[in-house]
Every structure is written in structure tokens, then in C-alpha cells.
Amino acid sequence: MAGGNRADPPKGRGATSNPEGRFEPITHEPVEDGWGDKDPLPPALRTEVAVDAARTAITWNDSPDLPFDRSVNPYRGCEHGCIYCYARPSHAYWDLSPGLDFESRLVIKPEADRLLEEELAHPGYRCAPMALGTNTDPYQPVEKKYGITRRVLEVLERTGHPVSIVTKSTLVERDQDLLAAMAERNLATVTVSLTTFDRDLSRRMEPRAAAPNRRLRIIKNLTAAGIPVGVLVAPVIPVLTDGEIERILEACAESGARSAGYVLLRLPHEVEGLFREWLDTHYPLKAGHVMGRVEETRGGAANDPRYGTRMTGTGAYAELIGRRFNLACQRLGLAGHDLALDTNRFTPPPPPSGTQMTLF
Questions:
Q1: Which of 5, 50, 146, 253 lies 20 to 30 A from 314 at CA?
Q2: Is residue 91 a contact partner of residue 48, using CB atoms and an 8 Å limit?
Q3: How many helices (H) and strands (E) does the chain have?
Q4: Whole-angstrom Cα distance, residue 233 to residue 211?
Q5: Which pLDDT score is estimated for 40?
Q6: pLDDT of residue 23
Q7: Contact by Cβ (8 Å): 231, 219
Q8: What is the DSSP letter of 193?
Q9: With a cut of 70, which residues of the chain have pLDDT below it?
Q10: What is the three-state SS of 284-348?
Q11: For residues 35, 40, 42 and 44, what is the CA-based torsion angle, rounded to 10 degrees?
């Protein structure tokens, strides 16, 4: 169901409730009816999968904050359940909750590889790096069953199309063969997202993602296979994780990471309410301090959507985070090593069968 709260957070999930999305005309409010714990416990929350009848695979953007203008997202929603995920509000467009629905009611694009190949074959297509993992993780648990990300990679490898991937999942190692073959031609990079080394915090905050120490091993394994790997310290959460920046960067550099970036916590739309609720549930004594710092970096609000500052925030505290991060990167050799992928190897696939050929 899309509305209503649960008394206790479901085990293995990030959100603590399932509030309505901002477009829904009806809202629900829990009411104490006097029966208390006499009511039976709700059934375990299981992941449900629906099919997206998409007609295109590539999503285009012109954001000055992003280093790419195109991406493929095989999945809507994400089973990792990261409470801070900025993609949660997108579930509201499906009349689903950005809360528990986002991490348990997923929408998949099983035809993404075929659609991508058709788009790459279009006469007007011009090659530039394709991004995977820009909205939700392309290697979230359901990828093991459906293999959509792997099929998308096979299209890109076959056509010589460059790709950059962001993930926090060990499943990326499954595709090491494809990624290594592409990396030999300067066609692939992988960025591993790492938020904290506090295992208890990580378990509560990103419950179905790989453990922090296991993500270091992802970096080591991919690097050993010849694949360029970077680290994304994201999000940096005031009070909870901001003290770990240098330690994370040092460990990632030792594991073979070649570059690094960060994003300061931002809480757009429904994410603000969900994050506040999560703080009150798991860290009630720190909740006020955390949100006070967040608002300090966002002009007194929980989110500032303006281009140019939404990723790094503003104010003295945000500037301090930026200086610490940059100094650590310079000391560890992680600054200025972003790899420019090769776009000259791209060979368009043949047009789909049944497509009328041009006269000349």
C-alpha cells in the first residue's frame, strides 16, 4: 500500500515509513484505535517487480552539475534502500511512495539493450560517454536475476561505445570480463560509492548495499583487472560521516582508486521528511545537530536546488568540507586524474531489421 506508517521499521529496509508521494490526491494518517500490540504484525515486506514499457533507453540531460549528458537506467527504484537517496522522489511520478515503495516496488526495463541499440543506430547519433548508475544502482540485487545491465554493457562493448559506471554493489565484479576488455581500449571507468566505515551506521542507512570493507575489495579487484576505478564519497553527512573524509580517501587510494569526488547531503522533496524520520528513529540525540548543519549548508533549508551549489552546498561549513576533501586528494594523488574516455572507436550498429534504407 502507498500510504500509512509502520510502528517499527521493516527489517532490512532503509525507510521507516511509506508516505504518499507529492502528486497523490489522497493522504493517510495512522490512528491509535486502542488495540495496541493486540493487532497482528504486518506481513514481511517483499520486493515486487513491474515492467516499464519504455520506448527509449537513453535519458538526456543538460545539467551543468553533471559530467555527462546521457545515461541508461535499467531500473526505477532501488533495493539497496539508502535513506539519503536523491532518486526517491522520482517514484512519486508512478503514484508510488518515495519511502518503502521505492526500495520494494521496482520497475525494470527488460528491453533496455534492444532500445539502446536502436538509438545508437540512429543516423543522427553522436558518441559521448554513456553513464550507468546516475539515478539508481545498475547493480542492485535484482540485476542478478534480470541481467539488464550486463546486456546493456554488451551493446556498448560491441559498438565501441565508452561508459562510466557508479555503483556500491559487488555484482559489478561479475562483469569484470566486459569492463576489462573495454578498459583496454579506454572505453570504461567504474566509480565506487562509499559513505562510511561505520558498519552499524551503514547497515541502518544503506541496508542492502555491500558492506564498507567489501567496497574496498571491489576497488582492489577491478584495479587488478586493469579497470580504472574512482571513489565517490557520497553523501557526506554532517555530524554522522563528515569526520571520515580523510580516512575513506586514504583507504580507497591504498586499494587502487585513481580519482575521487564527493557530494554533500541534499534532501530534495520527500527525502527530507524520510531522512528526518530516520534520524528520529535511529539517532534521536543527534537529529537536531545533523539537521542544523544541513540547513547551514543550504541557506536555512534542507535543500537548495540551484545549479552550481546543490552538490557542495554553501557557507563556512560547506567550504571547510570542500577544502578538507581537496587537500586530502592532493596529498593522496587522487586529484586531477579523471580519465577522458575514447569516443573515436564507436561503430554504430546496423539499423533494426525492417528499417527502410536511404536511397543514396
A1: 253
A2: no
A3: 11, 10
A4: 15
A5: 57
A6: 61
A7: yes
A8: E
A9: 1-9, 18, 20-43, 337, 353-360
A10: CCCHHHHHHHHHHHCCCCCCCCCCCCCCCCCCHHHHHHHHHHHHHHHHHCCCCCCCCCCCCCCCC
A11: 150
Would you state the pLDDT for residue 177?
97
Q: Nearest 5 degrees, angle CA 86-CA 90-CA 94?
A: 155
Measured distance between the N- and C-terminal CA atoms of the chain, rounded to whole angstroms? 56
Q: Dump pLDDT digits (tens) for 128-139.
A: 999 998 889 999
Using alpha carbons, list the distances in angstroms from residue 96 to 45, 141, 226, 338, 348. Answer: 15, 20, 41, 37, 37
All three cell numbers of 197, joined, read: 566505515
Provide the pairing of β-strand 75-76 with 105-108: antiparallel
Query: What residues pair up with 5 in beta bridges, in sequence order?
Result: 17
Contact 302, 291 (CB under 8 A): yes
Q: Which three cell numbers stand for residue 198?
A: 561505520
Here the cell at position 330 is 592532493
* Interval 2-12: pLDDT, tens: 444 445 667 77
Q: What is the pLDDT of residue 178?
A: 98
Task: Count the neighbouring beta carbons within 10 Å of the beta carbon of residue 346.
Answer: 17
Each residue of 179-194: b (16+ CB within 10 Å) or e? Answer: beebbeebbbbbbbbb
The three-point CA angle 200-314-189 to 5° equals 60
Between the CA of residue 170 and those of 85, 150, 218, 312, 339, what are the distances in Å?
19, 14, 6, 28, 22
Helices (H), 29-174: 100-104, 112-120, 143-146, 148-159
CA distance linking residue 234 with residue 110, whole number of Å: 29
pLDDT of residue 327: 97
Coil, helix or strand at residue 62: coil
- Residue whose cell numbers read 571547510: 320
pLDDT at position 36 is: 57
Nearest in space to 107 (alpha carbons), one of 148, 70, 68: 148
- What does the pLDDT look like over 77-121, one tens digit per residue? 999 999 999 999 999 878 889 999 999 999 999 999 999 999 999
Quote the pLDDT of residue 337: 66
